[in-house]
Amino acid sequence: MGINTKRIDLLDSFRGLAILGVLFTHLFYRWNDATYPYLYANLFHYGFKGVPFFFMISGFVICYTLENTLTFVDFWKKRFIRLFPSMFIASSLTFIFLLVFDEEKVFPNSHLFRNYLVSLTFLLPNIFDFIFSKKIHFSYINSSYWSLWPEIQFYLYASLIYFYNKSKFFNNFLVISSFIILGFGFISYFDFDNNVIFEKIVNLFSLIKHLRFFFIGALFYQLFSKKRKIRIRYLIAVLAIYYLTFWISYNEVEIISTSIMYILFLIMVFAPNYLFFLNNKVLIKIGYSSYFLYLIHEYIGVVVIKKMVNLFYPYSFIAPLMMIILFIILSIKYSKYIESKITIFLRKLIFKIRLNENSHTL
User: Residue 264 and residue 21: Cα distance in Å, rounded?
Assistant: First the structure.
């Protein structure tokens, strides 16, 4: 089934909200300048909750993508086209920029070519530590890249279940995901997660602790697609029961932030007109360019801010605000004039088909 443009725009608006939260957390709160502090920077402490919001959106979108993909290989071709070019460009720019301008070595690990190469693999750096017996330490070129590893794991997890049995995908996905989520919740609730072996397993397979967000997004896709109308009440019940677990196992911030995401998706599914205030062209463009914006903003932004923040004191907040605006503009231009062209070229090359240059994908 197709999803109408209005609702795709809402997903981009959600991405816009998520990336703005991350931007303000990183450039205002996380890297608040000790010498020239920003006023009220603590207000942006919880903007990092934009990352689980991205996970929920991915759960929704990947289900849509799977249902519109013929084979396992085609699915991964699509993922490669979507993810790798921007990662290559963002990592290359970050690496070169920090080599040239990070004279104080605020981010020394980002000056190492091996970390640049590791980032391009999308894999957890700890895997390379293990391969080389920790004789050489590896890390991402930008610590923000950590969230790409659970994303990749989810793509593999969902695609294996889907292409194993397409007709029973959702039932299998529901059962397996519920088992993993409830198992992790049980272990965490009784503090068994302090076990060294379990901790290593969860660090390696980080999808385990983030699957609940992807899972909720996938459930909302089932409600949204209306392919299984007789199960709508059942799915709402599953969501409600699952939501109650947050009151048992997680803190107030987790409950509040998840509630906001949950409510936004519910309104999108059942009453999208009530989200008219999110149907904003600027927010939609920010959301559409959010992947590259996420990859490029943090370390480059911090280095530039440190060089100019003294010029604005005591109104130091102007420096990170200027960088956020600049990154947003650059990312929107990149998505429109560079990423779209690369995507069309790779699709023609890999799938050997002609595509409309204005085609829009989730």
Answer: 15
d(CA 327, CA 340): 18
pLDDT digits (tens, 9 = 90+) for 209-256: 899 899 989 988 988 886 555 566 666 766 776 666 665 556 777 788
> pTM, whole model, 2 decimals?
0.92
- Residue located via tokens 């709402």: 236
Helix, strand, coil distribution of the chain in percent, nearest 5: 80, 0, 20
Q: What is the enclosing helix (H) or strand (E) of 83?
A: helix 72-101
How confident is the model at residue 229, as a pLDDT? Answer: 56
Q: Are 298 and 27 in contact (CB under 8 A)?
A: yes
Q: Give the span between the Cα atoms of 246 and 39, in whole angstroms.
A: 32
Phi-psi region of 154 (alpha: psi -120 to 50; beta: other; left: phi over 0): alpha
**Distance between CA 276 and CA 54 in Å, rounded?**
21
Radius of gyration of the chain from its Cα atoms, rounded to whole angstroms: 21
